[in-house]
Fold this protein.
Amino acid sequence: MPPPRIYFDWNSTTPPLREVVEAMAAAYEDAWGNPSSVHLEGRKARALLDEARGVVAQLVGGKAGDVVFTSGGTEASNIALRAPFAHDVGPRGAILLAPIEHASILAVAEHLEKNGVELRQAKVTRGGTIDVDDVRAQLARGGVRLVAVQAVNGETGVIQPIVEVAEAAHAHGAVVHVDAIQAVGRVAPPPGGFLAHADSVVLAAHKIRGPKGIGALCTRPGHPVVPVLRGGAQERGLRPGTQDAALASGFAIAVRAAGISLAHYQAVARLRDRLQAALVATNGVGINGDVAEGARAPHVVHASFRGWPSPELVAALDLEGLAVSGGPACHAGVPEPSSTMTAMWGAHPDEHWRFEGPVRFSLPPSTTSDEVDHAIAIVRRVIERERT
Ligand SMILES: Cc1ncc(COP(=O)(O)O)c(C=O)c1O
């Protein structure tokens, strides 16, 4: 029998928990009604939706009435980022972010820029964090309305200084948007929860073993949100369209489990470090992102393989049974280096070889020592084969 496949791509997506699948199947059997309907069928679906809203709100330190369910993280950020710049006739102010943000933030910022909003880019350190001193300097120039900062970078796993950035932004009257999608259930939340620091926070169920097709935009009470779509009163009119209560119930179960998964992820750091040590010992491999203890999510190691085009290496590893990513999923098939890699290494020409073969290993919290040994053996086999 061939050895079981190893799925080290948990930052891309995660397998839904069995309890999630079961709860969703039960909901599709019993609570399939339209949550906006007043009859019993509708009320059953509404009850699931309301319960899920409370569970999600609790996760980020918010209130159920301030949670908007969306199709995922991308849609949630699209809604959140536009609001501070809506309804303007005069100067539109600036959005400040670092180029290591996910495409769902960067692309909206670029769209806003085309529509008269000033786009300011904060510097990025070699370790892969937003440069807080530069954020302060850019805020001091005035005019910034919104600062977007991710909690954890999806490629390198580097944890971002969201508390410091939020403090600086608020001191200058800017609102703060946090993409917490790669942080939840994997690294400890900031003191008081995400909404103690951010005005808006986005989540995606599929990164925490929930279903695809649902995410959430959570805001502080009173924080203005403007709908992108028009057409109905669902989700307070902020995200019109009939809601899927089964997806919401699966999301709620995944959120509850995310509280427990923190400790399991922490335990993976040791195995991740073993994989990293083996990669470092391989000729022509460099690790991207701050490797100091506690600087990264515990399950991620991002490495560049000199001389390897990323798609070829990822395909070769896949054929041997190891699933990893060459970049963020939204970037797949795009030949240029990702904005995160460019931001970290663009100013260092000696390091440009790192753009060639970046590979992200993102381990499950259940990783075993045998799986890591097996993954190391596969990487070595593939690299050696190419050399001979
Ligand atoms: C940091 C980050 N933000 C946003 C997203 C997009 O989320 P979704 O796939 O739910 O739209 C992802 C998914 O890869 C991500 O890693």
Q: What stands out?
A: The longest strand covers residues 144-150. The chain has two domains: 6-15+262-387, 18-256. The mean pLDDT is 95. DSSP finds ten helices and twelve strands in the chain.
